[in-house]
Write a structure and sequence with these properties.
Helix content is 15%, strand content 45%. It contains 3 helices and 12 strands. Strands 3-2-6-9-10-5-4 form a 7-stranded antiparallel sheet. The protein has a 3-stranded antiparallel sheet with strand order 1-11-12, with no helix packed on it. The protein is globular, with a radius of gyration of 15 Å. The termini are far apart.
Length: 158
């Protein structure tokens, strides 16, 4: 039995939202697209995210120690693709302001969550990041960008 293939096929049936994790280092915006994100605790407020160990952006964000999780809207697939690629200027032509903790808050995101890094745990080929929520807010009322079975999806209006 091909567990790796079965694992991906089965877990691919779990629909996730897509976020963009952003930070500012020496006035340079950093960020990556992240579908592995979850609420963790209400008291104290905490979230978890799971960057791949191969990420070259997460170590730079880790050094900053604070970041913003931007929840992407259905019309931000291009933003997700741009932040999901490698390259020196992922923020070219992306609109953003500073969140209260100073991280890039992306224009058009439906909500944002400012975080302070609390700890990291080994998660195999990913890192389990636990972060304290220092602020959050809604930006606009729009459907979320979703990922299902290796493809972008949108909510169907019933």
């Amino acid at each position: 039995m091909a567990v790796d293939l079965d694992f991906k096929a089965v877990l691919g049936r779990f629909c996730t939202g897509i976020t963009a994790v952003t930070a500012l280092a020496d006035d340079q915006p950093l960020g990556f697209a992240c579908q592995s994100f979850s609420a963790l605790s209400l008291d104290p407020p905490a979230v978890a995210l799971f960057p791949a160990r191969t990420s070259t952006t997460w170590p730079r964000i880790r050094e900053v120690g604070r970041f913003c999780v931007n929840i992407l809207a259905a019309d931000q697939e291009d933003v997700c693709r741009q932040l999901g690629r490698s390259g020196p200027d992922k923020f070219a032509d992306l609109g953003w302001d500073r969140s209260p903790n100073g991280s890039p808050l992306l224009a058009g995101a439906i909500a944002w969550i400012d975080c302070t890094l609390e700890r990291e745990v080994d998660g195999g080929d990913h890192t389990i990041v636990v972060a304290h929520v220092s602020g959050l807010g809604e930006q606009r009322d729009a459907p979320p960008l979703l990922f299902y079975r290796s493809a972008y999806e949108r909510l169907a209006v019933v």
